[in-house]
Amino acid sequence: MALTLRSLAVKCVLVAGTLAVATPMSAKACTPLRVTVIEPEKPIDRRSGCRKIWRDREQILVGLQNGSEDYYKYRSIIQSMAEGKHGCGKRRDFAFQMADTAVGSPVRSGLIIDSYYPVETALNDFRNWAPDTLSKPRRDEVEIGAWMLSENFHAGFCGSGFYIDRLPRGFEEDAVRAVLLTEPYWEKSVAQFGNNPARDRLILSELMAPRSPYFDLQKAAELVPQFYGRDTIRGPRPRLRPIDIEVAEAITSGAAEKPDYEAAAGLLKDYSPYVTDQLSETELERVRKLWVRISQHRLASDDTELRKHALSFLKWGELDVITGKPIAQTLPEGAQIEVLGHWPDGLEPVGNIERILPLLADNGSFYRALGSRRGGRVELGVIFRPDGSYHDLHVTRDTGFEHPRLPSKQMSFGTHAKKLASRYFRPHLNKMQLTGFEGRYAYVPLPSFEFRVVGDRPKSTAEFVDGTIVISGVPYRGN
Asked: pTM score > 0.85 for this model?
């Protein structure tokens, strides 16, 4: 006969008691069994809150519209109304109306969610509760407006980060531009320029377009230095970017009422023909041509320094060339010197340069030099005394740079080139003896050095090309 649950429980108790009597008792005291009683959760009751919001709905909606009411103050109750839970009648359309009013038009930037770390916001509720009958223009405005007024910086890990440079998903540029050009969004977007690259690029394109209602080249030149405004992980100094070139071309073109060459010079100040890790060859050539135009304009300037800088660029094609002190000024008064254009037959030549290239590439002193993000060329030679003994290393052409860790300290590539030549050239330069020039000093040129910044190599390299030692490396990123 089948046992009921109650009779089965009684039998189990009797059996357990019998076994307990038959089994010898342990000398160890029994440990009492601790029983945890789980209280059932009290149901959430938001009926009174729902009734109050529904009763005062007109007043609350007006407050949300003018900003005097805080959407988050009511959000949990609104969510219950949207879902018909916690004692509230289901009023999804009204819940959406609350979220829609809080989002506003133009979209309120304070309600925008971070696309990488979503939080519950009125914008999220707008998306979740929007009815199928909602018009497409309103949907588009909210999505584009929210993207336009957001900060597209992803913090990443360990303090690093990057800007998300893309248009909002699902929208073409024309649709985004249409919203941007409406007055409220234009003003708000320009006011926070520098934290949304795709949007900021559209802003600059409008400022540079003569057909645009917002055409203003002076404003473009003012804003573009803020492009990637908070991006601090791209090296120890600002980088020249393609957008800088576009603006510089615009403000020096015929479209400008008055070409502003000095503003263009400020935008292009980080140009170096030896830095190839950020611009294409075509872009570098565009910058070079702009600097030629700027330099030609500066030749007519009343500023002596500007004219000097212009002549230097037109001669050397670089911004930071430092011409060495005349050799005669480094010698005793009245001394005669012969400057040679080649290595003399009476002097032992510098040994196999190919052999020392790995040593030159691995020398740590260049990482800080390359960290200047400028690169440069150094021309130098050895000065011999009238008795033929070594006198000094002399730099005739140099490039200056700021020390990455000490921005206020101006240094030069020539300093590093002299150290490398003294340390690695064989035979040792200070042990050389020159004959055939008795009674006068002599200057003998050494191979030139070029320092290049590249971004596609895991470590620095050195090559010997057409009599020049070319050292290329990635930028030093120390702070």
From this structure: no
